[in-house]
Amino acid sequence: MSIKNKIKIGLINYKKIVVWGSGGLARTAIKYWLPKDKIDYVIDSNFNKNNYFPYEVFNTEKIEKSKPELIIVCSSAYVEIFEKIKKINPNIKFKYIYELFLINHDFNSEISNLMIDIAATKNSSFFKLILKKPQILVNITYRLSKYFKKKKITLPLYYFLAPVHYLFCLLTSIQLPLRLEAGPGLIIAHPGTIIFSEKAKLGSFVTIYHCCTVGTTLSGGSPVIKDFVTIYSGSHVLGSSLIGKHSKVGAMSLVLDFQCGDFMTIAGIPASIKKKYNI
């Protein structure tokens, strides 16, 4: 099932929705994923950006008056926006656009996982995607290798593709072991010195920037990264660390055997909780 159809089914009980955001992600969501007949209007703090959309763009005062059924947040700053929505009206329902990708998702299908990896990374034609973001080749060979390994008939393809995967890992300086378990929507923001331990566990929509490590320690502990976590550049998540859902690891941080809950920002050496969002 396509992402667009999954989202359409997920929103079937809503007559109208509101989109929050008018940047690239919002434009992509409106163009390719969201059912256009359900979109009522768009919210953005800079509400003069209405030339981007076939919908009117308003500031936040609009939702105080209209009380929409559901707000779809299309911005990388979605956690801060969630908090803002809660302050405006705690009864308004809201979702991050990528949460809709997981509706009726088959997490055991590496092909379905790959389609979400590409959709979450792609903002141009596939040819331009390869040129601008060559790290997507690591995702593609990772998912396909795991897929081919599951069936006896496709095992020869696995033996061919696995070395190709590690070649792309070498060229992009990204160590992504095939034994690693990663949920859909793995976003490698930039190539360059990214290391994953094969014993780590990654949830859905984990985003990682350059010069980062998700690895074990001498004691043998391995990190667990939950859904919708972002690890910014130069950070190292090591040992028996647990990063909760919708949390962020600030740049140049050292997370060592640290337990972090949901909707938090952690940073520093050693890392500590810098902010807990009221969601």
Report on the architecture of this protein:
This protein is an alpha/beta fold and 279 residues long. Helix content is 31%, strand content 22%. The strands form four sheets. It has a six-stranded mixed β-sheet. Strands 3-2-1-4-5 form a five-stranded parallel β-sheet. Strands 6-9-12-15-18 form a five-stranded parallel β-sheet. Helix 5 runs antiparallel to helix 7.
Condensed summary:
This protein has 279 residues and is α/β, with parallel strands linked by helices. It has helices spanning 3-10, 24-33, 61-66, 78-88, 110-121, 126-132, 136-149, 155-172, and strands spanning 17-20, 39-43, 57-58, 70-73, 93-96, 174-175, 181-182, 187-188, 194-196, 201-202, 207-208, 212-215, 224-225, 230-231, 236-238, 242-243, 248-249, 254-256, 259-260, 264-267, 272-276.
